Amino acid sequence: MTIKRRGYAAWSGDTFEGVGSISTASGALEAYPYGFHSRFEGTPGTNPEELLAAAHAGCFTMALTVVLADAKLVAKRLHTTAEVTLTHENAGYRIGAVHLVVEAEVDDIDALTFDYLAGKARQTCPVSKVLNAEITLDTQLRE
Question: How many structural domains are present in the chain?
Fold first, then answer.
């Protein structure tokens, strides 16, 4: 099975004062604004790194549900944060790291086993596989 998804970007103007918009084929984002200031200075709007963080958090969380199901477990609750690090290097900017933090409520599992299963999900997540970045993971198992 092959699945293809589309996203779109539009831009007008120069790098620093120009404005862009990002859209998804599903309509989840429709001409959502982004630009230099939202990417590098924290002004309102989005940026590619924030969108990548959300995609990675979502992908990893779904991968974790699959790994848990394989172990005959179901999560009551999973909450994942992905922090993408963009650094400036000699050749320009690079996403060099992503740090995942997953908080979970899962019955009938100990912290060591949950760490192992979460690590397996990190390795099987398609977004993790496509990134050329160091991906670290912290787990927090709640009772």
Answer: 2
